[in-house]
Amino acid sequence: MTARPDTQSGADDIKAAVLAAQAERDTAVSAAETRFWQTIGKLSQSYRGAQKDVAAALNVERDAVYKNVRKYTA
To answer: N or C: at which end does the chain have fewer Cβ atoms within 10 angstroms?
Structure first.
């Protein structure tokens, strides 16, 4: 019979790979969220009343649009 592989080192390798993938995903999600709210900010300033129309299109309150635009564009 062949010897069993060292499962601890395999588990450590898997854990490190999962943590790296998770960090990469978190970075990508954060970047996408920032780009999204920057675009929404530009759209909400395009004409008088645009923020209200953007909020209606997103199905959120106008205040939520304002706060998220400030959060991601500051």
So the answer is: N
